[in-house]
Write a structure and sequence with these properties.
This protein has 72 residues and is mostly helical. It is 21% helix and 0% strand.
Length: 72
């Protein structure tokens, strides 16, 4: 069983699952944690803070070609 964590608005959950490649007919187990009004998940806070935006301009140091062994 694979696990993912979504930080999404309730109306955007289906779109977020589709964006991550989960088929619409897939059976999913869902645990919902509702953030109290005004609280944002850490991912949203980090993204809004823009502190790591510079990483988008940095070259990738490693690629799949650097792998010694590939996952199966």
């Amino acid at each position: 069983m694979s696990q993912i964590v979504l930080d999404a608005e309730a109306g955007q959950i289906s779109a977020e699952l589709a964006r991550r490649g989960i088929l619409s007919h897939a059976l999913v187990h869902v645990l919902v944690a509702v953030s109290p009004g005004g609280e944002r998940p850490m991912t949203a806070i980090a993204q809004a803070g823009e502190g790591l935006d510079w990483l988008a301009e940095e070259p990738d140091l490693y690629s799949d070609a650097d792998l010694i062994e590939t996952a199966r």
